[in-house]
């Protein structure tokens, strides 16, 4: 027992190698190596530190760095001639006053990334609606990415505005197309695309311009009426006419909602009426009727049609008004499901 204890505390060189070797990242011209600080019981005595060895992958000679700090867990090697994102091999051992321990396993670490050196080309932007454009481009080759290409940044700014004040959105991956929304109608935008990696963005592509479409009419379909029989509701509305500064109406959309389920019917502009099934249970259906066209969708007119045993109820509701000031009509008795209501806007 006495002898074992003596051997255990007797100072000697470290006998195990540090673990958790890794690294990467950092600023230009840096190679960052990290490891797990060695616990005191493995230090085997005073004068403790680490010896870090590294070399460019596939080269012969190792460079060694002596790091005489017990608590170190990170080393930053700086060299002006380090190329961005190049692979290195690293290994590490511990030392104390008695000598050096064994080297750890080798680990692969990359030097710091730098921004991509080239930008996307052939950028193309088209207006989808008054509020949305689609942008596409020729992707950047991975070789010129100076690191791992993460995606693309789309910058867009209004004509007469400064590019420095551009709004920007980033793709999450390497797709070469993106939609940008939240734009102003009938507005000319400049657009440029840049590749990015963890170090930042590269140079911008040549810029292009795009003009968003005129806004959709800001009126909902008017004079909406509906008629329900036992199994269906037929709804009618008046045409929405676009003004000179609005985009043409190409048709109507009727959104049908019942018990959390929705289905959308898209009609061309020749149709201004539609029949839809009424639920057999005591539920209700919500209908939203709106115009659609090149500028996008117009505001909706909302109708709620419900029925329960012996009672048919309809609520005329202006979808965009925040005050619920619309009248509620309650019909009871013999009238049941044959209801017609005329509503002027
Ligand atoms: C920097 O790297 C070059 C080329 O690999 C090497 O010759 C030089 O010794 C390095 N300098 C330092 C300070 O490590
Ligand atoms: C730009 O995109 C539009 C729509 O995607 C396409 O019709 C057009 O051909 C494209 N133009 C160029 C130059 O790629
Ligand atoms: C509303 O529609 C009904 C039926 O389609 C029609 O008779 C009536 O003239 C319309 N009212 C207005 C104000 O357009
Ligand atoms: C109710 O109206 C729908 C659509 O107009 C029609 O197909 C159906 O036959 C009608 N049902 C009754 C009971 O009148
Ligand atoms: C469109 O023009 C009308 C007058 O003709 C004006 O009242 C309205 O604000 C304009 N709308 C837009 C979005 O510019």
Description:
The protein is an all-beta fold and about 350 residues long. It has three domains: about 15-110, Immunoglobulins (Immunoglobulin-like); about 120-210, Immunoglobulin-like (Sandwich); about 225-340, Immunoglobulins (Immunoglobulin-like), CATH 2.60.40.10. The chain has one helix at about 1-10, and strands at about 20-25, 30-35, 50-55, 65, 75-80, 85-95, 100, 105-110, 120-125, 135-140, 150-160, 165-170, 175-180, 190-195, 200, 210, 225-230, 230-235, 250-260, 260-270, 275, 285-295, 295, 300-310, 310-315, 330, 340. The strands form six sheets. Strands 19, 20, 22, 23, 24, 25 and 26 form a seven-stranded antiparallel β-sheet that branches. Strands 3, 4, 6, 7 and 8 form a five-stranded antiparallel β-sheet that branches. Strands 11, 12, 14, 15 and 16 form a five-stranded antiparallel β-sheet that branches. The model is unreliable at about 310-345 (pLDDT under 50). Bound molecules: 2-acetamido-2-deoxy-beta-D-glucopyranose (5 copies).
